[in-house]
Amino acid sequence: VVPPALLFLPPVITAHPESYTAFTAEDIVLTCEASGNPPPKFRWVKDGQQFDPASDPQVLTSEKSGTFSVVSGDGPISKYMGKYRCYASNELGTAISEEAQLITENTPILTKEKRQRKTVEEGDKAILNCNPPSSSTPPNIHWMDKNLQHIHQSDRVTKGLDGRLYFSHVIPSDSRDDYICHAQYVTARTILPKEPIQLIVTPSNSVVWHRKPHLLHPTGSETRVLALRGQSLVLECIPKGLPTPSVTWQRLTNGVLSTSRTSTQNFGRWLRFNSIDESDQGDYECIANNSQGTAKHFFTVTVEAAPYWIKKPASNLYAPGENVRLECHAEGIPTPTITWSLNGNPLSGLDPEPRRTVHGGTLRLGDVTKSDTAVYQCEASNKHGIILVNTYIHVIELPPQILTRDMKVYRVTQGQTAVLDCETFGSPRPKIQNSDTLELVLSHAWVSQLVNGSLQISNASPKDSGSYMCSVFDSNLSIAASLDVLNRTVIISPPEHKRVQRGKSVTLTCDALVDDELRNPPPQTLWRKDGQKLHESSFDDKYTLGSSLIVANAQSEDEGLYTCEVITELDMTNASGSITVVDRPDPPFNLTLTNKQSRSLTLSWIPGNDHNSPINEFVVEYEELRSRKGHWQFLLNSSGDIQQVKIPLQPFCNYTFRVTAFNEFGRSEPSNPSETYRTPPAAPDRNPEDVRTISTEPGVLTIAWKEMDKYYFNGPGYQYKVMWRAAGHRSHWNQSAVSSSPFVVREAGTFQPFEIKVKAVNQLGEGPDPILVTGHSGEDRPLMAPQNIAITPVNGSVVQVKWVPVSRDSVQGHLLGYKIYLRRLGPQDMRGIRVQGGHESDNGDSWVVDVSGSNQVEEVLEGLRPYSKYELKMTAYNSKGEGPFSGPHEFDTPEGVPGAPASLTFDSPSETSLTLHWSPPRDPNGKLIGYLLHYQESKSLLESNNGLMKVLRINDPDVYHITLDNLDPKIFYAFYLSASTSTGPGESIVRTAATLLDGGPPSNITVTAGETNVNLSWVAGERYRNVVFYIMYLNKNGRWEMSEMINSTQSFYQLQGLQSGSQYRLSFLFNNSTFWEKEIKTEGPSNALENLGPGGFATQGWFIGLISAIVLLLLVLLILCFIKRSKGGKYSVKDKEEGQVDSEARPMKDDAFGEYSDNEEKRSVSQPSLGVESKLGSDDSLAGYGDSVDIQFNEDGSFIGQYSGHRDVPGAVGHDSSGATSPVNPMIMPPSYPGVPNSVTGILNRGN
């Protein structure tokens, strides 16, 4: 608690007035605030004279403040211009403020001026002046167009510190009439747009494109710069030259340019010092460089300093009799002067006081009393400024107190400086007592105790964490404090130096490791570009800020140094990276043609901006306006450091050129075309190529060549001189001049050799002597056929043919080869071959074999059929066609091995026997002498055969079936059947089969009742013979009804025509005995007739009328039927008989030996309805069969599941009649299968 005596305090200035420029009365506000007790009173001094703001009616003042402001008035504001100082006084002393200078100006306005028009030749430098109205606060200059878009700046076009727009050289695209300078006066809140400037760039062929660099600004060779410590400084070098010079900076004093203290801006044209100090003083050099040379400028930087404090005296309380020492030290260049004042009055003007002495910046006052309470001012000044500090001496007697609260917790991060406060109060000043523990702590070099009693720990580490105590000497006053040293914030993933292609996005990361104690509140990440804070913008999404920075649509202005700052409540750390924007180069420009000659010239150009990616290659293209207008042709390429090439030319051409640049990011747009250059004409220097004859007609010589490109005509009147003569004769040349190919010579004979030449000529002469070429006149068909044809069989399918070639004269052209015409006449002995199944021999097969090559005299013919007769003829052919046929030559091929038998099927007479049926091979390839059967046991159709192989030889070729007995019914057998000729056995047909097993009626029957039908289904046994059974059912009227015959293999049957909601009893019969019974009830409501009372429908009038109408309708129908029959309608017994047999049970053709199908039961076309005592029909029911059943197999060996047999007695059913499904694929017939009707309705539909 502050004692009452402390309520009396000398004044302390808390807010000083500041210097600035005012443009209106409302801008004038001078601040002066002070604390003290009693409250201080204020007064002002202006230009050394007393100034009373309250006496001015236009000035607004406050009773408890020294601040005053000027309200709007009619008078000029210039009367307020001057230097001001504020005085705050109470009973204990007077404090004074720093001096503030108020400058008044009128708001800048534009004077009327003429629009400027500047004309510059292409390649020259240009400078556009701004010349804004002058002001003590220089404006910010912005160059914009009429749409208020910034003029694009680059290393070629830059704005200088003086506001001018500099062009190192101009190009045609710089021409525009809206270069507008906008001067922004921030303090005056005014933007003044100047008159637009028109820049006209005129092209000039005489311009010298390669120019050494020179500096547009600054001029001369050296500049001396004076800078004040702590301020920013910018050195500027803006060059001109072609190509655009680059600017580099270096320090000459020690050769090292500090990257932490300096940065380059404005495309390298500026070297910026953000806060210069004495270490930056020295000599600097800027170097402008291009391919033509360099330019340099030297800067001598001198750093001086306004006064700044080294040590300021502190206000304090003193007890009577104490000695006071005030230290006031300041530095500056030049060295500042120190003066002391007492309550605003210089000590030099006061009476001497023996107890008070002043030596420079040290003031001593001994044996103080309460009357010495006052405010002292220490002022340091040099030519660059004045600084002032107030300090008071308050002489008072007070008991000691510790003002810092007890148990205070201090938190710092590792490496920071921790200051543990122990602020005491009292007069005389209390002394801090050091305990033994504190003495130990103070023994460390990084721990010290400050004058005010606070404990300072530098470069804190976790071992410094703990509790500390501060005690006042000779009292019982003490406080405790604790220190927590947390982990410092570290950036573990700093921003990198990234290159990004223009228009794309780039991401800089800034991931930091933060102590858990500092995560609440979460740390803040700030991003700066070249020291300026970045903000997210909602209108263009340029920046996305966070732990990562995303810069979208990167452009050249986005290049720079990017710094991320991670800020917690205790510390801050930063890291920097950079973005360099790269892109494909700008197109080259200023193409120049020099050293122009008839056959060559030199092309040079200036590279465009490479956008921070060096140019790797230049590609030169040309357009020939006479022959190839509109088509640019590749000419040559050169490396990126070459900017001129020598180009070969062709006579009589109009050339224009263009150049394209390439870097790693792609190709530039092509440059603008160069000027056109016309070469003089000359005689041809080359002849046409590919001279040849293309004669196609007998007696005609046709000479052709590849016509030359007009580009090589070399002059006007271009033609071809064609020369020819008979080969082998030294006669004169025939010649003719033509304009195009081909050239035709008539009556040249058939295929006669000629020597030919074709030469290029124009109005200026002929080309070089052409190469002689030999050709021929047109061909005709050959006159002769090959002779002495000899045919030698190699085996049953291969023969060798030899012949004597035709004579060269008879070919009448270039012999291309021979053609062999081959025709099969048939087998050697038709009587010796049995042909079964309709497979007759393929008589009349013929084909042609082309034997290419003029030197061929033999050919091997393959793919012939053994044991056959063939006829052979030959021709010779050339490009005109074939010659005459040779005489026919017949020959026979020997026997070969036969093909596989055409089919192999099986019957199973019993459980232990199989009958094999086969048909002979389609290709017997000779006389069959028998068959060879191999068979072995196999576990199933799918598993490999591994049983003992048995062999059975059948020596009669007319046998086509055989029965095997004593087979095991539990296993499958694999059969391999092959036919044999005298050459040997042929290919085998392979099948797998098993015998059929005796079966019985089905069990596991499933019943599903509908409204008018009942569905019955069961699972048929694999490999079991078919059995036939019936279904008897008893309705509630007590009448039994029977279905038709049902096969056990059909797996499904449907009873139809039942009444809904009725009870039925089903009984299944096999061999006249019941093997399964079931009670069922159909779905739906019961019959309405049964629900009527006595008399039923018979007593209902509406029912009598309905019956009468039905009877009348039936009578009419009967009359119509008799009338139709009386007209002689015929009835076909044959059609009825055919209708009784299903199409699937028709007898098989004899030539389809081995194909079997079921002979189903013959039925009448119509069946009685279910309501009358009739049998329900099934399309799959079987009649009685013979003693054996034929079992079919598919090509893979599986059972087909259809059977053949002949019914002995219609309707008779025997236990031995059977059928079976495949043991691999049992045939289950679903209720809706369209091909297998399972009800009376299905049979009737089938009959229709």
From TrEMBL:
**Mind telling me which InterPro entries this protein's record contains?**
FN3_dom, FN3_sf, Ig-like_dom, Ig-like_dom_sf, Ig-like_fold, Ig_I-set, Ig_sub, Ig_sub2
Has the keyword Transmembrane been applied to this entry?
Answer: yes
Region Disordered: list its residue ranges: 666-692, 1133-1177
TM region(s), chain numbering: 1102-1123
Any GO MF annotation of the entry: cell-cell adhesion mediator activity
What does the sequence similarity comment in the record state about its family? Answer: Belongs to the immunoglobulin superfamily. L1/neurofascin/NgCAM family.
Among the record's GO biological process terms, what is one? brain development
Keyword entries, A-Z: Cell adhesion, Cell membrane, Cell projection, Disulfide bond, Glycoprotein, Immunoglobulin domain, Membrane, Repeat, Signal, Transmembrane, Transmembrane helix
Membrane association type? Single-pass type I membrane protein
Instruction: Specify whether Signal is a keyword of the entry.
Output: yes
Which intervals hold domain Fibronectin type-III?
587-682, 684-780, 785-896, 900-999, 1001-1085
CDD domains reported for this sequence: FN3 (cd00063)
Report the superkingdom from the record.
Answer: Eukaryota
Q: Where in the cell is it found?
A: Cell membrane; Cell projection, Growth cone
Give the protein name, as stated in the record.
Neural cell adhesion molecule L1
Looking at the record, the residues that make up the Ig-like domain are 11-104, 108-192, 213-302, 307-394, 400-480, 488-580
Describe its function. Answer: Neural cell adhesion molecule involved in the dynamics of cell adhesion and in the generation of transmembrane signals at tyrosine kinase receptors. During brain development, critical in multiple processes, including neuronal migration, axonal growth and fasciculation, and synaptogenesis. In the mature brain, plays a role in the dynamics of neuronal structure and function, including synaptic plasticity.
Per the record, GO CC terms? Answer: growth cone; plasma membrane
Feature: compositional bias, Basic and acidic residues: 1133-1152
